[in-house]
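Final report, Chapter 2: Outcomes

The project's central promise was a pipeline that accepts a single protein chain and returns its three-dimensional structure in a standardized token representation, suitable for archiving and comparison. That pipeline is now operational. To close this chapter, we reproduce one record exactly as it appears in the project archive, with the input sequence first and the structure output second.
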Amino acid sequence: MLRRLLDYQLSLTEPGKPFHKLRPLITANDTFLYEAPINTSRGPHIRDAIDIKRWMILVVVALLPCFLMAIWNTGLQKFVYSSGDFHLMNEFINASGSLSTYFAFAEKDNRWITIIKEGFAALLPIVLISYAVGGFWEVLFACVRRHEISEGLLVTGILYALILPPTIPYWMVAVGVTAGVILGKEVFGGSGMNIVNPALACRAFLFFAFPGKMSGDVWVGTNPTAIRQSLVKMNQDAQTTSLDGFTQATSLAQFNIPSDIRTLHVDAIASNNVGNHVGTLETLQQHLQQWNSLGDHTATLGSLTQDQIRGFVTSPLVEGGLGLSSGYYEDAYHFAALKYGIGNLNSDWGFFFGNKLGSMGETSTFACLLGALFLIWTGIGSWRTMLAMGLGAWLTALAFQWGSFFLADGHGAWLPAQFSFPAYKHLLLGGMAFGLVFMATDPVSSPSMRLAKWIYGLFCGMIAVVIRVVNPAYPEGVMLAILMGNVFAPLFDYYAAQHVRKRSLRRVRTAAAI
């Protein structure tokens, strides 16, 4: 019965019939329910029993863990940060110390129901707008060009929504997906012809066109003004200081500090918490001894008061201090907490499972890994690209870390603090995991040769970390690194093909000689 209904609808779109110009729309409805009756005549091609639409749906399935985590974490953060109750905030921070207490916090008084409601209210409108506006442009271009509707929007629509902040205005969601679909894909010929990832093109357009709405304190709730007022009330009621106050700064915002803050400054601040495990211990002890003698202090490293730490770090070098400007002390304090995992909100497990602020679908490395396993198991995502990008990021961060330790006097004490940041933590911060699993593996904009995939992944990972560490104005480099990798992907494929041909030619010549 359904088949007959669909056949009748298709008959109305035959040449000369009233709905002929809408044939791509009717065909899309048919092929969504049934296998496409024809083979593709243009890229991308899938040599399998399934068509491209089913292939795209599998990617959507792989995104489900990130989608569910986006609902949960967005709702949880909004529930806490918008409450205006510092007792609830302190309870949440204390509960973030372990997984069991974290879920106990959510289960108390059935808070999980409110959390899920808040998460749905934040994420679903953005997803629906992304699909509706993006789908409109896909249908329009398909009808004008008289070709099938692209299935790529199934993935682009949800990817785009997951890499946005929850406070993004709805009209801006529509503008971004419009620019990404038209400028990033349709002007190049549609799906299979785009040279960059469409979802990243959407986000890049928004980032450069409306930076105020895509960076800063935009990662909590749906109303930045309400969240700001809530935090002000919490800090007033709790009588906090600038150092222990409640903020909505993301981990990347804490990482993005001025280059004037050196490793020595950060290690001095963290010495009370990590003791002798700081890398610049000997240099710190020498400076502290000089500071004590010149200023008649009796401070001991590892048991300094907060006033002593601030005085030691911000005193001029001629007085034996470390010479940090007092205006940078707060940034150095938060960076020290991030680097050494001081405080429950800076724990590695929280970063791994997704208890942090950020773009809605990018917070959970664990959810991204679940999606990666599914993509690799189904053969859709390239494990070579994923592994290469992860290795590229980790090795580059490790080069900065080891270079600051071995290649500079005093174990890198006076190098910028970002250089000595633990390499493995780069994989837990920001959108690194989401980018290497779902963005870098886009089959259209990434290389197809095996060797090229390794080079491409290493390139993207390396550039992402270099942007993070060296660029003072942009703390997250994953988006720009992958877009740059997309541009160079044909070049990587070209040289990889040349290498394979030369190797094959050498083998033929060797066999002929034998």
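Archive annotation: Residues 16 and 23 are 12 Å apart (CA to CA).
This record, like all others produced under the grant, will remain available to the consortium after the project formally closes.
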